[in-house]
Amino acid sequence: MNKAELIAQVANRAGMTRKDAEVAVTSVIDIITEKLKDGEKVQIVGFGTFEVKERAERIGRDPRTNEEIKIEASRAPAFKAGKVLKDAVNS
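The chain above was modelled as a monomer; its predicted structure follows.
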């Protein structure tokens, strides 16, 4: 499912126009993104938790040359599914 299909499903289930559903879906994504950029955790009970993981600087290898390269420290978004979501997927 892509974003356009998600918007269509939200519009259908919520009985709203596609334009309103697009605003709603885009707003949710934007808010989650903003909060993660600020270093905050976003927890949606029953669904899961979005958070930022810190990755330390490390040494890796260039697969073409097998040469060691330094991989800079970075922040990466992560999602941990909640119990209700896990149970729904496994049933």
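Residues 1-40 form one domain.
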